[in-house]
């Protein structure tokens, strides 16, 4: 819901000039109900001059009368000058000076983890130029050795919804081209919420691939037990004739 200009000053004017409830004013200006009560008590917005929303074409008198007659009525903003022409805005995204030094790190993150995004999409997300993106892709950027990939959402350079929208657009383009994607690529091309909801697929380390059916130890088979019993007797193992010891004693007694 759109909020009025100079929200606190507008709240001061409504508290001083109307009988609208604190809850209605708080919902309209985007403040907490206790803040509105603090304004009425003189503890909040001390010295702030009231901003007339009727004179500034943000509210109508009829809307105020409805709100005063019905405590459940929600005030509706008539016109928000700050939003005029917002949808038609063109040009690169503005990046605050304090965050411009982190922009190359965010580009490196997007290039590394979302290579499917085009240069135009990346430029729109973080407010940069295509030559800069190309230099980072080719690792010819003058500061590439000192750069670290950082999520642009964490840096505040773009919103998570904007990044998800760009990823979804890349996914639709990839599907239209009919390319075969791996599991990792498919996971990258979905939104963050969908990716977190997906079950992680167990992966077998390459060092033990092919040994899935191999078992260590365990119970011995009947054949192994039988062989062990067969070799337990040394005479039977060497196939010595029975009574061999007696014959040797007879031969010795002859001498």
Q: What is this structure, in a nutshell?
A:
This protein is 48% helix and 0% strand. The chain is mostly helical and 255 residues long.
Give structural notes.
There is one protein chain. With 255 residues, the protein is mainly α. Helix content is 48%, strand content 0%. It has helices spanning 7-17, 22-29, 33-41, 61-69, 103-113, 119-126, 130-137, 152-155, 160-177, 183-188, 192-197, 222-230, 234-238, 244-254. Helix 1 (7-17) packs antiparallel against helix 2 (22-29) and helix 2 (22-29) crosses helix 3 (33-41). The longest helix is centred in the middle third of the chain and has 18 residues, at 160-177. The radius of gyration is 40 Å and the shape is elongated. Mean pLDDT is 75; it is low at 85-89.
List the helices and strands and how they pair.
Blueprint lengths: L6 H11 L4 H8 L3 H9 L19 H9 L33 H11 L5 H8 L3 H8 L14 H4 L4 H18 L5 H6 L3 H6 L24 H9 L3 H5 L5 H11 L1
Helix pairs in contact: 1-2, 2-3, 5-7
Radius of gyration: 40 Å
> How would you state the average pLDDT, rounded?
75
Distance between the termini: 124 Å
Structural class based on helices, strands and sheet pairing: mainly alpha
- Helix and strand element order: HHHHHHHHHHHHHH
Beta-strand content: under 5%
Q: Summarize the main sheet.
A: none
Q: What is the count of DSSP helices, taking H or I runs of 4+ residues? A: 14
Unreliable stretches covering 5 or more consecutive residues: 85-89
- The helical percent reads 40-55%
Q: Got a strand count?
A: 0
* Overall body shape: elongated
